[in-house]
Amino acid sequence: MRRLQAAIEGLDVGVLVNNAGVARPAMAYLHEADVEAWVRMVRVNLWALTEVTAAVLPGMVERGRGAVLNMGSASSEAIPSFPLNTIYAATKRYVSMFSRSLYVEYRSKGIDVQCQAPFFVATRLVPSAMLDSWLSPLVPTPDAYARAAVRWIGHGPLCTPAVSHQLLWCLAGVLLDAAHDWLRLREHLRLRALSQRARAARVSAADRGEKMTHAKK
Ligand SMILES: NC(=O)c1ccc[n+]([C@@H]2O[C@H](COP(=O)([O-])OP(=O)(O)OC[C@H]3O[C@@H](n4cnc5c(N)ncnc54)[C@H](OP(=O)(O)O)[C@@H]3O)[C@@H](O)[C@H]2O)c1
Hints:
Radius of gyration: 20 Å
GO molecular function: ketoreductase activity
Keywords: Oxidoreductase
Structural class: alpha/beta
Organism: Panicum virgatum (Blackwell switchgrass)
Bound molecules: NADP nicotinamide-adenine-dinucleotide phosphate
Pfam families: adh_short
InterPro entries: NAD(P)-bd_dom_sf, SDR_fam, VLCFA-Steroid_DH
Mean pLDDT: 93
């Protein structure tokens, strides 16, 4: 915090984008990963965002203007559960409530606080199996997402900027919660099985490579 405060001293920070986020461990039951791994996720997704916002707000209040954009996720807003990614979705729920309340607190001071809640965007955070699925036409590139995201800054406390995500959000509203829960768990168990198979294949390829090196020696 001290380093951050020193770095921004004297700077006119007009727009803060809290984009950093961690989604791994993904497709895992809570008891399967080290608690430290979940704590790391909470530190970045929730704690760092809080600290950076708190560091930047005093300057914005002084100047009477500014915008804070927090990256949330549709996983905590548009659907009722996100099984096997529980901590991730829970941290994103914090982000939306944090943003909504700050929006109300700081609007009269000229500062817009917004949570953007996208569905999947084609970055390294998304499992590759997801990008190959029927959903792929609805997954924007990071550039396309960023263009839409910038246009939405200042338009309310919660939004999903990409048109394909707005469509998915409407579709999600039609399904019953129990149906969502069942479909999500089934899909995430499938993705989990695919990533476990890919990991096993990588390990056995590495073993084969090691054995060949030994044989050559
Ligand atoms: N992609 C999606 O489908 C999707 C959907 C909903 C929400 N989101 C949210 O969108 C945001 C951006 O994610 P992305 O999709 O662009 O994922 P990404 O490609 O994995 O990028 C994550 C970013 O977070 C930074 N980061 C992670 N841990 C950090 C740490 N300890 N300190 C500083 N920086 C750290 C990474 O920095 P380095 O490059 O230095 O590692 C990287 O720039 C995240 O908040 C994510 O939760 C993404």
